[in-house]
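--- STAGE predict ---
source: upstream dedup step, 1 unique chain passed
mode: sequence only
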Amino acid sequence: MKLNRKFFNRNTALVAQDLLGKFLVRKIPSIRSGQAKIIKARIIETEAYCGIRDLACHASRGLTERTKVMFGPPGHAYVYLVYGMYNCLNTVTEKEGNPSAVLIRALEYENCDGPGKLCRELKIDKKLNAVDLTKNDLLWIENSKIKIKKSQIKKGKRIGVDYAGKWKNKLWRFYL
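--- STAGE serialize ---
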């Protein structure tokens, strides 16, 4: 069952932890065969980016064409390019107007041990930016029957945010 908007309309750090163990599902249409390929992989690493005060969060620089999806309703995909070559997938969280998101860092699936690698493997690019993950049929997140205990979740500093002052020290990376 797809996660609903209520799931995403909560504190970003809690959503980041609660996404662990859930399934990211990608339906990749095939032009040649007409048969779509469906990849369903367990989320095993996330990072929380918590609004305009969090200097590691893209939205801390204000509303731009790139970040406008983060200012919208929760449950939408925020896909952006880093280093001019790697796409990264986030889910928008919290209430509309409070720009926050969770980066999906890794999946339990071959070649998905990093945000750019998982987007390349699942063919996630900017065409999927702003899609509603609660309703979309090409990309969504499903609940899992496996309950992840808080004691199973490891915490660490977010990766690649040394520029973010005191925010670089937040333990907002969560992984199994």
